[in-house]
Prior knowledge:
Blueprint: E1 2-8, E2 15-16, E3 23-24, H1 34-45, E4 50-54, H2 62-72, E5 74-80, H3 86-95, E6 100-104, H4 106-110, H5 112-118, E7 124-126, H6 133-138, E8 148-150, E9 167-168, E10 193-196, E11 199-201, E12 216-219, H7 221-233, E13 238-246, H8 250-263, E14 266-271, H9 278-286, E15 289-297, H10 301-306, H11 313-325, E16 329-336, H12 343-356, E17 360-365, H13 388-402, H14 405-413, H15 417-435, H16 441-447
Parallel strand pairs: 1-4, 1-5, 5-6, 6-7, 9-12, 10-13, 13-14, 14-15, 15-16, 16-17
Antiparallel strand pairs: 2-3, 7-8, 11-12
Helix pairs in contact: 7-8, 8-9, 12-13, 13-15
Amino acid sequence: MTPVLLLNPPWPASILRDYWCSSVAKAGYLWQPIDLLAQTGWLDHHGIGFQVIDAIAERLSVEECLRRVSECDPALVYLLTSPLSAPEDDAFMAALGTRRLIVSGEAACADPAAYLAGHPGVEGVLKDFVGDALARHVLGERGALPGLFLRGDAAAPGASMPRRQASFRMPVPRHLAFPGDAYRMPLLGGVRFATVMTDFGCPYRCRFCNSGASGHRLRDIANVVQELEAMQRWGFRHVFVKDMSFGAVRGHSLAVCAALQRSGLTWHAYARADCLDPPLVRAMAGAGCRLVQIGLESGDRDLRRTYGKNLDDAVLESAVRTCKAAGLKVGGHFVLGLPGETPTTLLRTYRLAARLRPDYVSFNVATVRQGSDFDGARSPGFGPDPERWTLAARNLMYLAYYSDVRWLWQVLRGADGKDLRDLAVSGTGLWRSLVNGRAERGWLRRLRAPAAGPGAPRKS
């Protein structure tokens, strides 16, 4: 019998469930679930045996995954869930029978008491995945365990999270317990990478995002160095820094850069545009950073301001320009369909993307992220299902962006073999998503029209 099984359950598509921030991969990317990864260190530290099954990375069917679970026969299962895969997740948990279950995920962590009331077979909800509450619970410790919400805690929900603190430490996660070759990221040329976090949560409160709902804690730098040294020993060459907003605390981020520079590892990270000034970007580039993923959100300044990104276009343009000048590749992330979105604002978003020309773009349709300011207070017209015209606009934005002949020529002219392989993988995923849906031809004409006279397509 295995004491603990860390499980990312199966689903028909490539889904990312970690860090209470679920999404379905639109192309060929997947990283290690940071919640499960962090817990491997604590379980090992406390001498608790465990196994890992990432059914998404291993592309296991429900039947194959249930067979694997039966073979390891766990005393307790720590399992990730998502609103996107909730029906299948619930059915899978039911198929596990009477096994003890602890879960993490948006719905569970946003309201543990409500989730447990609706899931009588679940024993508890782990909210603070960088702490050791799960390990202490497995060892039989009773009483309040900060970060772990058990069924009997319903009368005292405030006890379910630790006090917000300036810093935290955690044992080095056991990266080799995961199927390393199954994970992949864009623009990395197929290099084997590991995922690390140097802080927890986020100091910002964008209204559409839940990352700041649990506050913000910094990881002790010496503790980060320990993990980077382990990654070198284990043969990793690249690191995905899974912080929600790298650079938010300048001194800490510069210390992380210094540690990464000493390690010799290359890396990439998420960052806010207003943090990416020349001194920080130079430090990142000098420390081996290769890619910065920036939340640009919308081409309409009023929408950005309404939803917590009160940044002028000039700030976004400066961040992208500064990163490119330092030799960093840029990923631009946009959110489509927020309340107040119109065909005109969508066109502004596309034209901002076309003007900034990130190395890749991600157009994401807005959803209600449980635990965000939208949760429980949905704006008029912001339902659970995106409207057809928003989905059509997203698909055609991708098509217009990536089919620009001049841009393609510039990319191909400077690409090496690894870059071409990444382009082929991403392009294949893009075309598959496009051919599976219908889209108005008029949108493509408007996306390519001069900015002076875009016209506004009618809502269908």
